[in-house]
Design a protein that fits this description.
Elements lengths: L4 E3 L9 H19 L14 H4 L2 H17 L2 E5 L6 H10 L9 H4 L3 E5 L5 H11 L4 E7 L5 H18 L1 H6 L1 E6 L4 H9 L2 E5 L12 H9 L4 H17 L6 H14 L4 E6 L5 H15 L7 E6 L8 H6 L4 E10 L24 H18 L4 E8 L2 H22 L9 H12 L16
The structure holds 5-phosphoarabinonic acid.
The site of 5-phosphoarabinonic acid has 14 residues, from loops.
C-alpha cells in the first residue's frame, strides 16, 4: 500500500543531500522537543494522541449524532471560524462531490451542508436562511473558547430560525454544540438549553482541532468514514514517530522549508490541481499561518488552485520577487476519468489528445508548471497522495500537523498561541460597547 510521501528531488537544485544533512541536527532536536513534550506550548500537544486514543464514548456519540442529522435533516449548517471551521470544510470538500449541495441527493447521500459564522455578513445569513427555506435542518455550533462573536451571532440567528420553525423543545434536539470544557458563553447556553455537547479538549490548540469533534462531526454528517480518517492519521503518526530522518516525510519537509526560509524564500505556495483539494489547502494555510507567524518569524503561507492560478499568479511566481517556493499536492489516482474522443475534421485542433485522459492532461500541466517554476528559481516540492480517500486524508492531516509543529520548534516559537488574533476582537468589542471594554483606546475612524 502506498502512503502520503514528501518528495524533494524536484528541488534538487536547491536541496541536496548535503543541505538535508546540515539540517538534520536542528530538525532532530525540534522533533525531540515535540516528542518529549518539553517545548513551548507543551500543554497543547493533545493532538498527538488523537489518532490512537480518541475518546471512544465521544466517538460513538459523534457517529450517532451524525446518523440522526442525516436522517432528520435536509440541510446541515456548520457554524465556526478559523480553526473551528477550516478543518471540517477541508475534509468534506476533499472527499465529497465537487457540486455537493446542488447535485441530486442520491449522489450526495447526505444533507446539504453550509457554513456560517465565518463572516459577519447580513447578506450571507439572509441568503442562507432563504436557501434553507421550509426544509428540515440542524446546526452544529463550533467554538473552542465559546466566546467568538462571529460564531455566537450566526448561531443566534440560526437558533431563532429553528425555534420559530420547531418550537423550543424540538429546536434543542437539532442544535449540536462543540466547545471547550471550560465555562464559556456557548457552554452556558448548551447547559441551560440541554443541547447535545461535544468537547474540544483543553490540551488541543484551536489550530489543531481537525481530528476532534470540531472536524469529525461535520465530516461524519457528510458521509465520510471518520474511522478511516483516524486510521490514516494513526499510520502517519507511526511514520512520523519512527522513521529515521532520511526517510521521514514530515521531518524532511520541515527541514527543507526551514533551509529555504533561511535563504530568503519566505513565501510558500501550496498548489493543488483538483478543485476538491482547495479547501484542504485553506486548512493548511490556517494551520501554518497561525502556528508559525510569530515573533517576526515564519514563512507566509499562500494557496494556488491550478490550473486557474497559473493565469493569476504564474507571472509573479516566475518573474516577480524571488521569495517564493512551492509545494504541490499530487493526488496520484483521482478516480473516474474522461477520455478525449476524435472529432471529424479536427475543428478545434485537439485531435492530438485523442485517447488521452483528462487526468493525464492535468498531470502534464502539473509537470510542465513544475518545470517552468524550477527553471525560474522557484524550488518545487511534491507531496504525493496515493488516492482520494478517507485514509489518505487522515495521513495528510497528521503529516502537516506534525511537520508544522517541528517547523515551529525549529523557529523556537510557541506553536499553539495566536495572541495577535485577539487584538482586532478587543477593538471591535470596544466599538460595539461590550461590557468590560469601555476603557480601550479607540482612535479608529468609524465607518458606520
Ligand atoms: O486556530 C485558532 O485557534 C483560531 O483560528 C480559532 O479557531 C478561532 O479564533 C475561533 O476560535 P474559537 O474556536 O475559540 O471560537
Amino acid at each position: 500500500m502506498e502512503h502520503v510521501c514528501f518528495e524533494y528531488t524536484t528541488a534538487r537544485k536547491y536541496i541536496g543531500e548535503e543541505v538535508l544533512l546540515a539540517q538534520k541536527k536542528v530538525t532532530e532536536k525540534a522533533k525531540g522537543v515535540l516528542l518529549t513534550r518539553s517545548g513551548k506550548g507543551c500543554d497543547y500537544l493533545g493532538w498527538l494522541d488523537l489518532p490512537e486514543s480518541y475518546n471512544k464514548e465521544e466517538f460513538v456519540r459523534i457517529q450517532r449524532a451524525a446518523n440522526r442529522i442525516r436522517g432528520n435533516s435536509k440541510v446541515f449548517v456548520v457554524i465556526g471560524i478559523g480553526g473551528s471551521y477550516v478543518g471540517a470544510r477541508a475534509g468534506i470538500e476533499f472527499l465529497g462531490h465537487n457540486f455537493f449541495n446542488s447535485v441530486d441527493e442520491k449522489y450526495r447521500n447526505s444533507p446539504e451542508i453550509y457554513f456560517a459564522g465565518n463572516n459577519i455578513s447580513a447578506s450571507y445569513l439572509n441568503d442562507l436562511l432563504q436557501t434553507i427555506g421550509e426544509r428540515d435542518f440542524s446546526i452544529n455550533i463550533i467554538s473552542k473558547s465559546g466566546e467568538t462573536l462571529e460564531i455566537l451571532l450566526a448561531a443566534r440567528v440560526l437558533k431563532n430560525a429553528l425555534v420559530a420553525k420547531y418550537g423550543k423543545k424540538e429546536a434543542a434536539r437539532r442544535i449540536y454544540v462543540t466547545t471547550g470544557k471550560q465555562e464559556n458563553a456557548l457552554r452556558k447556553m448548551a447547559m441551560a438549553e440541554d443541547l447535545e455537547t461535544f468537547v474540544i479538549p483543553d490540551e488541543v490548540g484551536g489550530n489543531y482541532t481537525i481530528l476532534t469533534a470540531a472536524g469529525l462531526l461535520p465530516m461524519a454528517v457528510s458521509g465520510i468514514n471518520i474511522e478511516e480518517v483516524l486510521k490514516g492519521a494513526e499510520k502517519m503518526h507511526e511514520h512520523c514517530y519512527e522513521a529515521p530522518y532520511e526517510q521521514n516525510s514530515a521531518m524532511l519537509y520541515a527541514a527543507a522549508r526551514n533551509y529555504l526560509a533561511e535563504n530568503g524564500k519566505n513565501i510558500e505556495i501550496l498548489s493543488t490541481y483538483e478543485p476538491y483539494a482547495e479547501r484542504l489547502a485553506e486548512w493548511w494555510k490556517q494551520l501554518f499561518g497561525e502556528t508559525e507567524g510569530k515573533e517576526k518569524k515564519g514563512i507566509f503561507p499562500a494557496c494556488a488552485s491550478m490550473t486557474n492560478d497559473i493565469y493569476t499568479l504564474g507571472q509573479f511566481i516566475q518573474d516577480g520577487a524571488r521569495i517564493i517556493f512551492e509545494t504541490v499536492i499530487n493526488i496520484k489516482y483521482t478516480g473516474r476519468d474522461i477520455f478525449c474522443k476524435a472529432e471529424a475534421g479536427n475543428p478545434d485542433d485537439l485531435n492530438y489528445l485523442v485517447g488521452k485522459s483528462v487526468s493525464y492532461i492535468n498531470k502534464c500541466a502539473m509537470e510542465g508548471t513544475n518545470l517552468s517554476h524550477t527553471d525560474c528559481d522557484v524550488p518545487v516540492f511534491i507531496i504525493d497522495v496515493p488516492e482520494r480517500s478517507a485514509f489518505a486524508l487522515g495521513e495528510l492531516i497528521f503529516f502537516f500537523e506534525f511537520s508544522c509543529a517541528i517547523s515551529s520548534y525549529i523557529l523556537d516559537i510557541n506553536p499553539f498561541t495566536q495572541p495577535r488574533v485577539e487584538d482586532h476582537k478587543k477593538n471591535m468589542f470596544a466599538l460595539l460597547g461590550k461590557p468590560g471594554f469601555e476603557n480601550r483606546r479607540i482612535d479608529m475612524e468609524k465607518r458606520l
